[in-house]
Amino acid sequence: MQFTQIISVAGYAIEAAGVVAVVIGSCVSSVAFVRTFRQLPEGVAYKTYRRKLGRSIILGLEFLIAGDIIRTVVVADTLENVAVLGLIILIRTFLSVTLHLEVEGRWPWQTETRGTV
Predict the structure, then answer these.
(1) Residue 97: is it exposed, middle or buried by C-beta count within 10 angstroms (0-12/13-18/19+)?
(2) What is the pLDDT of residues 25-77, one digit of tens each?
């Protein structure tokens, strides 16, 4: 197996890990929500569910970005592919930052305040 093939497989494996993170995170979040939504005060279970689900999506996006970077830079390093990669990274980063704001209630670069759920 050539080096580029190994790196390509590694890139796909990292992207697959991103998909798995989203799927498992969604399942775990959903099961936890179903188990707790009647025991918690109104709205708390939903907010916890959204936070856990959002975190799994953010984690999956990070893996997907990493896989794209590896495959594009090492395997297909044409200017057109790098431009497409840049656009994909911009979109996924925008999604990640806005999801972080939605889930955590603060920007990723802001320090966490005490007392948040």
Answers:
(1) middle
(2) 999 999 999 998 888 887 888 888 998 999 999 999 999 989 988 888 777 77
Please state, in angstroms and as integers, the Cα–Cα distance from residue 36 to each residue in 25, 27, 41, 67, following that order: 16, 14, 10, 35
Entry field: residues in the chain: 117
Q: Write the pLDDT tens digit of every residue in 89-106.
A: 899 888 888 888 888 887
Q: What share of the chain is helix, strand, coil (3-state, %, to 5)?
A: 80, 0, 20
Q: If 0-12 CB within 10 Å is exposed, 13-18 middle and 19+ buried, where does residue 41 land?
A: exposed
Helix axis angle for 79-104 and 44-70, nearest 10°, is 160
Name the residue with tokens 């939605």. 102
* Residue indicated by tokens 């856990």: 52
Whole-angstrom Cα distance, residue 55 to residue 49?
10
Per-domain boundaries in the chain: 3-104
